[in-house]
Design brief:
The complex is a heterodimer of chains A (152) and B (171). Chain A is an alpha/beta fold. In chain A, 31% of the residues lie in helices and 21% in strands. Chain A has a six-stranded mixed beta sheet, with helices on one face. In chain A, a hairpin with a 2-residue loop joins strand 4 and strand 5. In chain A, helix 2 packs across helix 3. The relative contact order of chain A is 0.17. Chain B has 171 residues and is an alpha/beta fold. Chain B has a domain of 101 residues. Chain B has three helices and eight strands. In chain B, strand 2 and strand 3 form a beta hairpin. The chains are: A alpha/beta (152), B alpha/beta (171). Strand 2 of chain A pairs antiparallel with strand 1 of chain B.
């Protein structure tokens, strides 16, 4: 009878050297700590929207988010409302803003009731952003926060 | 005489498993909270029709600073009569530095007036308005502006912290 030579059991592994793995992890942690976001507000930017650059270093606060992209599409909290050039979009926006304003005011726990975060594409003209601001003011939002991108 | 050799005890190998677990959890936490675009805000106010109560006396010489933004030039206006006291042309290379210096000078002359009204024409791109806002607010690096206000000395963090955007009457 052939005796099976169980060579596997005799194999000895050297201990794994994890120094290089630890080096990578430390670098990754430093990189991630650098890009750590401590702001109250997190925005999922809609397509075709590039933010203007600014030197401002004021952290964004949580609140209602209105976005208008390059193609004049208007979004409230990432939900498409319509196109700024179409009739009825502004009245629809006003309706929605009034509803949000009322809800936020009633809910005393939520801060920033009168605050609206405006996220505009950098190439929009003042007449377009003014339309949104006018509607926001008419809906009770007296303060606008213009969301910008920090310059490195 | 021979010195007795000190015996070094064998150190046990460090168990790195728990620390590795913690590091991995930390990495996931950081990955989820990472934002690769640095987002900040600029606070602006809706244009005010009247904030001064009718029975309150107006200041003798309110600043009432307005920056009218046209395609090729900027005008600075002040006072109740809104007289133009400075004009800058955007084709000039140093207009931004000159404008900032002027705004700092005006702010120092009026320590109690913290409002600036930006009044762009309808075709001005949003990014240009943001640039003017930066000029009107950002204090140059290394400069410290201390004002004597009614409430004592104040170190400014912004040249003008109260910003109002108002459409320009183009007619």
């Amino acid at each position: 009878m052939k005796i099976r030579n169980n060579s596997r059991s005799r194999l000895k592994f050297d201990e794994l050297d994890i120094t290089s793995l630890l080096d990578i992890l430390v670098i990754l942690i430093v990189f991630l700590l650098k890009s750590f976001n401590d702001s109250d507000l997190s925005i999922d930017l809609v397509n075709e929207l590039s933010l203007p650059y600014s030197m401002s270093r004021v952290g964004a606060e949580d609140g209602l988010i209105v976005q208008v992209n390059k193609k004049y599409n208007v979004f409230i909290n990432n939900e498409l409302l319509g196109n700024l050039k179409d009739d009825g979009t502004l009245s629809q926006l006003k309706e929605n803003l009034l509803k949000y304003y009322k809800d936020r005011k009633e809910n005393s726990k939520s801060a920033g009731g009168e605050l609206v975060n405006l996220v505009f594409d950098q190439d929009l003209q003042y007449k377009e952003i003014n339309e949104i601001m006018k509607v926001s003011a008419a809906s009770g939002f007296g303060k606008y926060k213009l969301i910008i991108q920090g310059v490195e | 005489m021979f010195r007795k050799k000190r015996e070094i005890p064998d150190l046990e190998k460090l168990n790195l498993v728990p620390i590795m677990d913690a590091v991995f959890i930390f990495i996931f936490f950081l990955l989820f909270s990472a934002q690769f675009i640095k987002i900040y805000e600029i606070e602006t106010n809706a244009p005010i029709v009247s904030e001064v109560p009718s029975d309150e006396k107006l200041e003798k010489d309110p600043l009432n600073l307005v920056v009218k933004i046209y395609e090729r030039k900027l005008e600075l206006l002040k006072g109740i009569d809104q007289e133009i006291f400075e004009t800058y042309f955007t084709k000039d290379e140093n207009y931004k530095e000159e404008l900032k210096a002027k705004l700092i000078e005006v702010r120092k002359q009026h320590p109690n007036d913290d409002y600036i009204i930006l009044s762009p024409i309808s075709v001005i791109p949003y990014k240009e308005i943001i640039k003017i806002i930066d000029i009107a607010q950002k204090i140059p690096k290394g400069e410290k502006i201390i004002l004597d206000t009614k409430r004592g000395k104040k170190v400014l963090t912004k040249i003008f912290s109260q910003l109002v955007l108002e459409p320009l009457d183009e007619n």
